[in-house]
Amino acid sequence: MGFWRGLKRRVKAAVPFLFFSVLGSYFVWHSVHGERGTLAREHRQEDIQEARRLLAAAQTELAVVQRRVAGLRSDALDRDQLDERSRALLNLSDPQDIVVPYGPGQRLFRPE
Predict the structure, then answer these.
(1) Within a domain: residue 52?
(2) Which of 2, 26, 80, 101 is most buried (most C-beta within 10 Å)?
(3) DSSP letter string, the chain
(4) Residue 37 main-chain phi, psi, to 5 deg
(5) What is the total count of domains within the chain?
(6) CA 57, 62, 66: angle at the middle one, nearest 5?
(7) Alpha-carbon 62 to chain mean position
(8) How confident is the model at residue 71 (pLDDT cuts 50, 70, 90)?
(9) Does residue 112 have a pLDDT over 60?
(10) Domain limits at 76?
């Protein structure tokens, strides 16, 4: 009987240690691999850097478009050139226009 009592006493003494060890391991694992853990933080940082790069590219594109729009708002805008350029870009013509076809590679202008 002494053996079983000693074993039972040792098991009872080990249960709280095992319980807190498992609980601590759970929290440590989630602090590294969890939704808000260190690995997830690194992924979020990479996503933030990519978003900042995209933002910089979008801001550059916005600045280009704003410069073009500012050029169209000028009082010295030549309406004939604007009309000619818009027709060339949209590939449209007026019914009274005379259309002169060019061969391939013989463009009158270079599109931007």
Answers:
(1) yes
(2) 26
(3) -HHHHHHHHHHHHHHHHHHHHHHHHHHHHHHHHSTTSHHHHHHHHHHHHHHHHHHHHHHHHHHHHHHHHHHHT-TT--HHHHHHHHHHHHT---TTPPP----TT--SS---
(4) -80, -175
(5) 1
(6) 155
(7) 17
(8) low
(9) no
(10) 2-90
Q: What is the largest CA-CA distance in the chain?
A: 116
With CA atoms as reference, report the closest residue to 82 among 96, 95, 68, 100: 68
Q: What is the pLDDT of residue 18?
A: 93
pLDDT in tens, 73-91: 666 676 776 777 777 788 7
Q: For residues 53 and 59, is the Cβ–Cβ distance under 8 A?
A: no
Integer Cα distance of 4 and 10 in angstroms:
10
Q: What is the pLDDT of residues 28-68, one digit of tens each?
A: 988 888 888 888 899 999 999 999 999 999 999 999 888 77
Residue 112 lies in a domain: no
Does the structure show a pLDDT above 80 at 4? yes
